Protein: Alkene reductase
Amino acid sequence: MGTLWSKTKIGNLELPHRLAMSPMTRSRAEEDGTPGELISLYYAQRATMGLLISEGAQPSDDGQGYLRTPGIYTEKHVEGWKKVTDAVHEAGGYIYIQLMHAGRVSHPDNTPHHRQPVAPSAIAPGVETFTATGMQDIPVPRELSKEEIQVTIADYRKAAAAAIAAGADGVEIHGANGYLINQFIGGNSNKRTDEYGGSIENRARFAIEVAKAIIDEIGAERTGFRISPGTPLGGIQDGEQGPDLYRYLTQELANLNLAYLHIMHLGNDELLQDIRSLWTNPLLVNRAGRGLENIGVDIESGLADLAPIGVWSLANPDFVERLKAGAPLNEADPATFYGGGSKGYTDYPTLKELESQKG
Structure:
């Protein structure tokens, strides 16, 4: 794992190693989407991960998919996030706020305005979502008009500006996991007949326009982008054109000189190799289910520049120290992943705490 511990750069940031903290929804924000003190503590505890990518923050009321997720579009949201970023910086880390518009993966019970979810096309994802009254079917969304698409792009731009105003080092555009940008990309979720649907170029258009708007607002060096080719989350199916669409999208995003590309990789190794050859800036490769001993393999081979860590960093605030020492890891408690208080969130012990308890 020698290369894993070498320094690298993301945009203008110099990182101490090649690990990063993956974005993970934890649903601990206030009802209005403001991050509180517990969220500040959670991220500060994990500052040694170097680059922290926050849980998805909705850029608007329409963008909220789940209960208690943070927003980044009001003054209160900015004030709350400022405390988070200050805490992370004081602890020696960097943080990118992920901008996540859930699109159709939502429910009226989960949003502030209680309206029908929005999407590129009026097609339900065919899955359930958690609400305050339990699991419910996600309803058919309302198709965005072309004018509303432009408003949504403007919402992303404003959210990026708000993130920087809140002290974030950059933003990650969430174009993955079945959410709005991915819904425009998906072959079964986008049946539009205008310039935002049909061809590869049209299905990628929304993603590219969002990226351009954010770059225009905060700079390419502070903008990352996440993709998940072939991932069926939220009922998305890429279709036969999927791999070629992602090759096209990668090249177009590469032309914009973004700080990084973050790929959730589920097994199309040929496509991953093609993306690596098209992408010359830092590439983050998140391999689902990889073993601890294989964390550095993609970096050693040159396939990736950073390895994002999800559940291990959730349960081990000192994951870096434990990995370097070959120490055992805390086991994550899935029952506390979403919602609740400090239990299963900020109470996972560090090695130092465990040693002091023994002493």
